[in-house]
Amino acid sequence: MLTLPHPRIEVAGALDLEATPTGVIPRRLPRWTVPQVPADMHRGVRGGSGVRLRLWPTADAVTLRLRAAVYHPEAAPPQLVTALRGDAEASAALERVCTLTDDGVPDRHAPFVDVRVPLPAGEGPVELWLPPGGVTEIAGVDASGLRELPEDTRTRWWHYGSSISQCSGAAGPLLTWPALAARRLGLRLQSLGFGGQAMLDPFVARTLRDSDADAISLAVGINIQNGATMTARTFAPALHGFLDTIREGRPATPILLLSPIAFPDGEDRPGPLWFDAEGRAHPQGDPADVVNGALSVGAIRGLIAEVLAAREDAHLTFTDGRDLLGPSDAALLPDGLHPSAEGYQILGERFARHARAIGFPAA
């Protein structure tokens, strides 16, 4: 078995490989961010959403030795590794998954599983997409006759968001909405969707500033409302500062600001959030407090629009998330907040159509 890192295997979608005693765990933020990442965020940073191994084997299958942990064992869909070559794909299911430890890594007492992934026929490199529903440790790759990889010259799209962008409940690695949209638009995806996050953290802004992004999208606001982590006084300056930091390194890169998709119970009511016995999300705040600066989702949308209007930035555009999943799509939000697996696919298709219509990313 080959181990990572390897000169002929690119771990695309990862910005760091965290070494363990038995392998590596891909991380979706650079190593320098580790001391700054909040404790509850590490499990999301290690998540497999958008992470794939890019390689060019001569064989018709590749075997990965994996130890995969899922975020929500009681509700997780089958965990798949999906091979993609051109438009053709093939998947293999993990026969065994384990739980996450309190440190946000797979249980190190759990056995590794060898997953034989059939490769679609054809020529050229293949991408092996990891499960988006948890954290995967990679112990080895069994692939014969690896050729040298050509450069991936597709437009580089970096997307930042919350659990709605991480899509741990998607039906497969290629069915998270950013992955699906990237395929439709012919883009190379870097997903920075982190469950429970998207708090406009400065270390994420610096990561985007220093990136090679050709286009950036920012889905912000939902967890700021859910956690009641900001007010009207602090949100707009924080968003300005986040954008200012990106512009220090990417002054002309197209940026698409996305307000939250529909959250019926949170449109006029601030957080914090709680989940009832049926798992449905409910904000606990008092709508009367919005006038004093508490943030409902509707208030956040208004502030995002004000930030956009205040900035003289020809490369910054805005999309209301309700144009992608709106109030009429409530049936696609089983907990009232997160899309279902079907909802993620619909969101990806709609985003792709919308992006083409508005010319994002610019040619």
TrEMBL record:
Domain SGNH hydrolase-type esterase stretches: 160-346
Signal sequence, renumbered to the chain: none
Lineage: Bacteria, Bacillati, Actinomycetota, Actinomycetes, Propionibacteriales
Annotated Pfam families: Lipase_GDSL_2 (PF13472)
Highest taxon of source: Bacteria
InterPro entries xrefs: SGNH_hydro (IPR013830), SGNH_hydro_sf (IPR036514)
Protein name: Lipase
Organism: Propioniciclava coleopterorum
